[in-house]
Amino acid sequence: MSDRDQHMEQLREIVAEVLEMEPEEVADTADFVEEYEADSLRAIEILARIEKTYKVEIPQAELNEMRSLKAVHEVVARYAGWQD
């Protein structure tokens, strides 16, 4: 499994836990708000868990970009310095 795949699966677990879903139900490009009815509090919780897990600081201004699993990965990769 590539680093990118590993990161995506870890992020999928975090998002699924916050959204109270099974990880396999979280599609890579599904919009959290439109498809999973996530609200701003859940978005902040996802961000907080990611920051704690990966020990990175991501500005809350990035939340608007973090609307799908793929987008979350792109933002976290940028701040965590992932080269995958």
Structure explained in plain terms:
With 84 residues, the chain is mainly α. 58% of the residues lie in helices and 0% in strands. The chain contains four helices and no strands. It has helices at 3-19, 32-36, 40-54, 69-80. Helix 1 (3-19) crosses helix 3 (40-54). The longest helix has 17 residues, at 3-19. The chain is globular and about 30 Å long. The N and C termini lie close together (12 Å).
| Poorly predicted segments | none
Distance between the termini: 12 Å
**Structural class, judged by helices and strands?**
mainly alpha
Tell me the major beta sheet.
none
Q: What is the strand content? A: under 5%
What is the mean pLDDT? 96
Global geometry:
globular
User: Fraction of residues in helices?
Assistant: 55-70%
Beta-strand segment tally: 0
What is the chain-wise order of helices and strands? HHHH
Q: Radius of gyration in whole Å, from Cα?
A: 12 Å
Number of helices: 4
User: Which oligomeric state applies?
Assistant: single chain
